């Protein structure tokens, strides 16, 4: 499982760091592996070319930051997960337990509105080597305050 809890700070501290010139991407350079699962229980491929201290899937962007939002509005951003291994691997995003965030599988599109019906696709959770799967992260704030959420991704 992958989480972005590495060096976790409250949103107000992140804002303070940014105002002082620190970049969010510098603070969260790579996702944190929070738990290892026995790959023999979940996959027929137990060997991997990805180093043990790195996640099997590379998220892009590493940090999703919504700025300039208003209460009761919805903002969206695309999250891509690229399989770094030599074999097909499963990936699953654990559904957020917050009604402020929603994750929707999508396909690559040139549309300016990534949540348009033609862009939504029930993609398989299996991803070929070197390929990526895309998700739309929707944020619907209830008030104009700082929010923070750690997205958990489960891989085999």
Short précis:
This protein has 156 residues and is α+β, with helices and mostly antiparallel strands. Helix content is 11%, strand content 26%. The strands form three sheets. The protein has a four-stranded antiparallel β-sheet with strand order 3-4-8-6, with no helix packed on it. Strands 7-5-9 form a three-stranded antiparallel β-sheet, with no helix packed on it. Strands 1-2 form a two-stranded antiparallel ribbon.
Radius of gyration: 16 Å
Largest sheet data:
4 strands, antiparallel
Report strand order across the widest sheet. 3-4-8-6
The level of helicity is 10-25%
Oligomer state of the chains in this structure: single chain
Shape call: globular
SS-based class = alpha+beta
Instruction: Compute the separation of the termini in Å.
Output: 9 Å
Strand content bin = 25-35%
**Arithmetic mean pLDDT:** 76
Number of strands: 9
Q: What is the succession of H and E elements?
A: EHHEHEEEEEEE
Query: Could you name the ranges where pLDDT drops below 50 across 5 or more consecutive residues?
Result: 1-7, 119-124
Number of helices: 3
SSE inventory with pairings:
Blueprint: E1 2-3, H1 11-19, H2 24-27, E2 32-33, H3 39-42, E3 57-60, E4 75-83, E5 89-93, E6 101-106, E7 126-127, E8 132-139, E9 153-155
Antiparallel strand pairs: 1-2, 3-4, 4-8, 5-7, 5-9, 6-8
Structure description:
- With 156 residues, the protein is an alpha+beta fold.
- Helix content is 11%, strand content 26%.
- It contains 3 helices and 9 strands; from the N terminus they run βααβαβββββββ.
- The strands form 3 sheets. Strands 3-4-8-6 form a 4-stranded antiparallel β-sheet, with no helix packed on it. It has a 3-stranded antiparallel β-sheet with strand order 7-5-9, with no helix packed on it. A two-stranded antiparallel ribbon has the order 1-2.
- The longest helix has 9 residues, at 11-19.
């Amino acid at each position: 499982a992958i989480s972005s809890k590495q060096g976790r700070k409250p949103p107000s501290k992140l804002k303070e760091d940014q105002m002082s010139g620190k970049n969010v991407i510098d603070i969260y350079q790579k996702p944190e592996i929070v738990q290892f699962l026995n790959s023999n229980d979940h996959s027929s491929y137990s060997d991997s070319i990805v180093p043990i201290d790195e996640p099997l899937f590379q998220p892009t962007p590493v940090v999703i930051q919504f700025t300039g939002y208003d209460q009761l509005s919805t903002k969206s951003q695309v999250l891509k997960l690229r399989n770094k291994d030599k074999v097909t691997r499963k990936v699953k995003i654990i559904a957020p337990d917050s009604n402020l965030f929603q994750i929707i599988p999508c396909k690559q599109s040139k549309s300016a509105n990534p949540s348009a019906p033609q862009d939504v696709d029930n993609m398989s959770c299996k991803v070929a080597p070197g390929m990526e799967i895309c998700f739309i992260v929707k944020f619907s704030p209830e008030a104009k305050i700082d929010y923070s959420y750690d997205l958990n991704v489960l891989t085999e």
